[in-house]
């Protein structure tokens, strides 16, 4: 049947009807008074979602563009930075920092395991000369389903006193609490196709007062991604360059939905869906890739041993029109990932689990009781 595709991947995520209708509106002038009002409304909503009174800037970019902006606006060539790498995206930020001539030191962990905050503490405490200018890390590592301990690592950065903390919150913003002001986070980047529940195309960067101080002396080249231009424009409810007008309409719609649901309720929903998904996968006799204690609320990675991950994905896509995500880099073909981020509800998780459960016997995986996955997920959902 046409047009029944169901996205259960970490992005793009499903888009609600309110946002689709907003996307279908006739565009208006991006320098007009009516659009200024839309930007003002979105900026207020973004600050609410980011739990900050500081700047939250909108860029026409992907999450990678937002992170690149977050790195290059506050640093200079040769600056020493620590980059946490335990997956595809942590490794990407090390590549971006290296491309701009930063002095990169990586703190690594195996894919599927969390970064060790103690390694950050040791490096930061040993830096008595205060040469480390930034710590760059991914909060929710999309490639593995790991949620790194941002709060603890940030405490060590704050104890250092000099270094900025620059955070990839692309799949955690809108799924887990990222209290920017309470924790004192300096630069936080995210993207529209995740927890914001709209299509790809907008990137967001939250910037602290400490980061703006660093901006004054940073010398890396920038033009389109110069966040100073975005702040100047945002302060006037405008944008420095042509924005995707209809995506901003859609953002206004989904921010309204999110405020109606409430921050704590959003975080509780994502946590409930995470626990239900993980319980179901275990009941189906499939190994999980990330430990329970550091599992992302956005994505669950599964590492099957009795069947091939890509075969599961293929059957679920062909027979049920449900898209699951595959593994990346060296884990391509070894894991598959179930997204439960953004505009996803209990019904969606049960549907995806049911499809996976139906696919497994076709591949010879029968070491589970029929209905076990649905029963395990339903139990969690009923108790939550």
TrEMBL record:
One of its GO terms (biological process) is glycine biosynthetic process, by transamination of glyoxylate. Substrate binds at residue 337. Keywords: Aminotransferase, Pyridoxal phosphate, Transferase. SUPFAM superfamilies: PLP-dependent transferases (SSF53383). The keyword Transport does not apply. InterPro entries: Aminotrans_V_dom, Aminotrans_V_PyrdxlP_BS, PyrdxlP-dep_Trfase, PyrdxlP-dep_Trfase_major, PyrdxlP-dep_Trfase_small, SP_NH2Trfase/AEP_transaminase. GO terms for molecular function: alanine-glyoxylate transaminase activity; L-serine-pyruvate transaminase activity. The keyword Calcium does not apply. It holds the Pfam family Aminotran_5. It comes from the Bacteria. The modification N6-(pyridoxal phosphate)lysine is found at residue 194. This is Alanine--glyoxylate aminotransferase family protein. It comes from Oxynema aestuarii AP17.
